Amino acid sequence: MSNQGYDEELRSERQYVASLYGRLDTERVRVSEAYAGALRGEGFALSDREVSVGAKAREMARLKVADEGLCFGRLDALSGERSYVGRIGLFDEENDYEPLVLDWRAPASRAFYCATGASPEGMARRRQFRTLGREVLDFTDEVFGRPGTAGERGDVALLAAVNAPRGEGMRDIVATIQAEQDEIIRLDHPGVVVVEGGPGTGKTAVALHRVAYLLYTKRERMERRGVLVVGPSSGFLDHIGRVLPSLGETSAVFATPGDLVAGLRAEREDPPAVQRIKGSLAILDVLAAAVADRQELPAEPESIELDDVTVPLDAGIAAAAREVARESGLLHNEAKAVFERTVIAALAVRAVDRIGAGWLPEDDRHTRPEMLEHARRDLEASEELGAVLDRLWPSLTPQRLLADLYASPERLQAAGADPALFREDADAWTVSDVPLLDEAVELLGRDRTAERRAEERRRLARKEYAERVLEIVEVEDDHDDYEFALRPTDVLMAEELADRFAERDERDLAERAAADREWTYGHVVVDEAQELSEMDWRVLMRRCPSRSFTVVGDLAQRRSPSGARSWDAMLSRYVADRWVYRKLTVNYRTPSEIMAVAASLLASFAPDVVPPESVRSCGIRPWARRLSEVDIEDAVAEFVREEAGREGTSVVIGPPGVPGAIAPSATKGLEYDAVLVVEPERILAEGPSGEAELYVALTRATQRLGVLYSGVLPKVLRGLDSGRRTPDAYLHCV
Ligand SMILES: Nc1ncnc2c1ncn2[C@@H]1O[C@H](COP(=O)(O)OP(=O)(O)OP(=O)(O)O)[C@@H](O)[C@H]1O
Fold this sequence. Notes:
α5 (179-185) crosses α6 (203-217), α11 (283-293) crosses α18 and α19 (448-478) packs antiparallel against α20 (488-503). The chain folds into five domains: 3-164, no CATH class; 192-261 and 517-584, P-loop containing nucleotide triphosphate hydrolases (Rossmann fold, 3-Layer(aba) Sandwich), CATH 3.40.50; 273-444, no CATH class; 457-501, no CATH class; 592-717, Rossmann fold (3-Layer(aba) Sandwich). The chain is 46% helix and 14% strand. The strands form five sheets. Strands 3-4-2-1-5-6 form a six-stranded mixed sheet, covered by helices on one side. Strands 9-8-12-13-7-14 form a six-stranded parallel sheet, with helices on both faces. A four-stranded parallel sheet has the order 17-20-19-18, with helices on one face. Adenosine-5'-triphosphate (ATP) binds next to α4 and α6.
């Protein structure tokens, strides 16, 4: 295309995109008016009004996400048809609802991401816009079907996106999703999809866009049940937290494996050996035995004093009652009533036998039943007996079961548990206790106390609901671009609506799901899934009986001793062979200069794993410097100072004891423009997963990597530039 031709095209594209924003603005005014009208109840029967308000509020949110980057490209079919692709779909109401711009998730948008020279999918051209705010800055074209265009996409927009300095949190990638990623995002598989790929291959990004896609295509089911996204740490969840809202989706609940039991937030970690024990399915036998061990027999007969007689509760009576209770098939807490009833019945017989000894015939049909009934009532009322029964068959919460077990070497031994599970602060819960607590609910039965607490939380939530409605109204009022302001009468309506919603349990999805242990999700995303233990998987499978999962991870980055060694070993128990596996191979984060260093480390501990190929190089060699320990401290401070003056993000990663450094595990799934790794040989020496930890640390950088060490540089890092670092070394990639 000549320069003049390009300029004319650019002008026309700018006009078109400007007209789309015009359409968007009109639409927003229309919807906001309809929203206010629905709040006032215009044109609706009262019963339909809240449905309408909800729908309008959702539509307003949908239109809001397209404030910037509404349209990012155009697709020209061989047939001559043109489609614009963007963040949301808009239609021309005056022209038979012709699409003006297609939602990126619509089937017709697929070719925008997938067409290549080799497989053009009936397309002649893909045009990608570079935009700033509402403006199209320029565009690039890929023309299919010409000689020499059959290779990979020459993607200027992609390179601009991956080169851009990182800000706070992850961004969505709708404008530049790559073909191998798109295939996974749209994969129509109802069961478990495992996505594996090296660091930076976009696993997290793909999983989140798949959620947005599923919410678009299966909206009803997904919105009602919600989607659970499980990630390794709260820092990671903060990092990814904005992606779905930027795509207009809010029906996701985010949790770490330590948050999966309601009312608990476990962050501590057990020592590796203990993690391994608690993560293995063999712990199920220990838990079952620990529960059985709480169904005790009296060592000595307990004397129960009634008004007329004293009866002994001995091991024989307790054993027979225990048998009956166990055979009832009920869970421990529910079977307690059976145990108690059976003991009381036996003691009543014993009491009547004693009182009637010598004068009451065994076959008496009149006095004996009356006396039995009398004795039963006395026994039921006996506090002394109640205390004994509570000791023999206590009502247990999961927390009490586990804390009592951990605190007692005797109980551990009786349950066949490893003595390593003993701990002094028995109820200082760790992340690996969470699946055990969850499992304990299955063994003990429902915990009525937690249910009562949840009901109280619900009541408070209802109370706050009306206030929240008012807040929303105020926020919308602040919006100066559009006429969202509501009149006082609308506010009154909003309050009335709040009351009505309260009756129908309108807590937001996250709250409802968190308060209800039996909540099941429409879909579950598991990130850094290689870290999850066999026991973690049991919890997640319970949360999603439909087994609709997107599981993303990288076995080579596994750090947890109880994590996955193979996907099949973790999954086949639940879904047999009905899970599919996809691989991502291109690294969008780490430039090739840094990836080369990480790849030589990878080859040393996982020689069979092919490292991902970087999508770009940046011309800056990662470096290493040897310094004394004292000088390292100064160099770290200097790094922090220098980076603070640059655009983008940075981090210092090191073993415990390095001032200002965080552990590699805390950076899992995260990324920074500049990374300084300190004392890598000590990271390597940190336990059996040292290599994976260092691999994670080296692959966090999007631009610059430096290494400081005081002892020996690990052999695998010898390729690093050891020359004096020049200021140029800190330039951005270009
Ligand atoms: N198609 C794309 N267009 C633009 N950026 C992309 C694309 N795919 C991935 N990225 C970017 O690459 C970076 C790495 O992505 P992501 O964190 O999803 O990788 P990952 O495979 O989960 O990495 P890790 O295993 O190290 O956690 C992110 O900044 C992401 O936005």
